[in-house]
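REQUEST FORM: STRUCTURE PREDICTION
Request ID: SP-0412
Submitted by: Lab K.M.
Chain count: 1
Length (residues): 208
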Amino acid sequence: MPVILIDELRPQKGHLTGLYSEGELICSLDCELTAEKELKAGRAYSVDLLRELLSESQLRRAKSKALYLLEYRDYSARDMLLRLKKDFDDSSARAAVEYLVEIGAIDDSRYAENMIRHFINQKHYGRRRILQELAAKGIDRDTAEEALEAFDNDEQAAILGLLETKFSRDLGDDKGIRRTVATLQRYGYESGDIWDALRDYKNSLGEN
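STATUS: Completed
RESULT:
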């Protein structure tokens, strides 16, 4: 079995320890893992063992990085995987995400509900746009639709509210109305609901 003589352990950035042989960096391992395994200079280690330790180090660091990222904002499983793959190999990134899902640190249903709340209250999006945005975040259709069921969102009432506030100044002529309709369609509202809300808005102003 091939072995490598490690003649130097050198501290590196990012809580890593570099293992060197004849002045060449063989691998970089998590400092805690290096201490736990009691790795020392002047000893020979098998290539298989060093590979196993490198994989374990990558997984530990991926988990630690993910938990650090979650301190600042929530992530979907897909988005976290993509983020971790920028710094770690695919296997470590996937294993870290699976672990976080298992312990509940990442929950796509919870993430979807939080995003829906933001899309409704802050962005004023309709159902169609919300589903598109969630799909772009890696949330599957069933999870997204189930999360939407928790929200009693009257889309026609939401459109009417936007007409009365955000778009009231744009409804004085046909050009402004067409522009408003196009914008609301991009927001994810259905054409029928938009025109029904426009009719209600005009009625509230006493217009025919």
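NOTES: The first helix runs from residue 31 to 36.
Reviewed by: T.R.
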